[in-house]
Fold this sequence. Notes:
This protein has 346 residues and is α/β, with parallel strands linked by helices. The protein has two domains: 2-126, Rossmann fold; 151-314, Dihydrodipicolinate Reductase, domain 2, CATH 3.30.360.10. The protein is 30% helix and 20% strand. It contains eleven helices and 14 strands. The strands form two sheets. The chain has a seven-stranded parallel beta sheet, with helices on both faces. The longest helix is centred in the middle third of the chain and has 15 residues, at 150-164.
Amino acid sequence: MIKAGVIGATGYAGEELVRILYSHPMVEIKYLGTKSYEGERFSKVYGNFFNIIDEECILEDLDKFAEDVDVIFTATPQGFLGSHLKEEMLSKVKIIDLSADYRIKDVDVYEKWYGIKHESPELIKKAVYGLSEINREDIRNTKLLANPGCYTTCSILTLYPIVKEGLIDINSIVIDAKSGTSGAGRGLKTANLFCEVNESIKPYGVGTHRHTPEIEEQLSFASGKEVKLIFTPNLIPMYRGILATCYGKVKDGVDENQIKKAYEKYYKDEHFIRLLDKGVYPETRWVKDSNYVDIGFKLDERTGNLVMIGAIDNLVKGAAGQAVQNMNIMFDFPETMGIDKVPNIL
């Protein structure tokens, strides 16, 4: 058994982490850290935990947690871990960060897109980007895990085999992604109120969304060349789920069989990536409440464009589920332990 602490436990991703960890056979949840609900019973913040987890939330204290647990999850806003983490802590505890503080290797790019100064840039090189299916061996040996963003997880995994194998023009990539409102977090924002989002769909962060450089950097690593792409997120009136529709111009001579083989080369043995049958395309309801990624594609021979579509649950594979998947790898547990759940379509 290992002991875990969750900082930011009362946010949406934090609650999902607590829900998953509670059922994990090798984890004891020792601390529930929060800034907003110190002294409140966790079950009072989230009534679904009544008579299940009634412990009080405590103030988020990274130093205290590091002394008493084996792993800390930080489901916090950008800048929290970057300003609190010290290198000596990593000799005591493993940290899985769900913010963007250690995802982007170029600190200047991070500071430009997030608009804050990084307080511990010297630790960025120690962090491993936690796309479990791609960086598994590096994840095994790290003490600092940068858990990917939700849009990035869906977009990168959908594009990765095609970019890695050089089947499309990397300068032609366009990503049109749609997400439920939980991706915006639990904070009160007028634009996310029911009356503002219901019966509507709206783009946001057009040309400026913070996940853009993360997607570009990881796809650049895959291709060996600099990738610049168009990424447009859209908010849709549902609670959870992401659908990323990605477009790219195929190179001369590339056919459907090559595309299928590329996906199978990288994903045929991946438990949580489901390659759909020809003519079947992802739907968010088929992955809801699960750690699965569904991927389908269509080669449009008329225009020479490849349409690649991926779907995930943004709170599970896009946040808490992937964090636990990475924890399993880091502690040498079976990778599917505690997260191998059938999607819940209702």
